[in-house]
Amino acid sequence: MITNYLKTAFRSLKKNIHFTVINILGLALGLSVCLLIVFYVLDELGIRKILGASILSLVILLSKDFLKWIAIALVIALPAGWLIMQQWLQDFAYRKTIQWWVCYRQRWHTTYCIYYHQYAIAQSCHD
Hints:
Layout: H1 2-50, H2 55-89, H3 100-126
Helix pairs in contact: 1-3, 2-3
């Protein structure tokens, strides 16, 4: 009995490690693409800042391409995530419902963090 439990636990640990590595590689790929885009438009940002562009217009310039993809992802992910979580929670002995705004709030915080970092990059171009 203990042997089977340990085998199952180690098998689960191996799966989790593989998923973790896949997620870290995906994150690294996404960050590298983001940095590539920023380096591509860095000269343009500097010239626009010298000519008097505001920080807000620079952030909009950096984020207008991302905003479209974020909106598409939200339209797909919010209902799907909410439905999956509702299905998953129905299997527990104690019933708990998730409100729709919990998923929205989490996505909003992620989007806010992305925009904050883009603002910091645009601000560093100013110095």
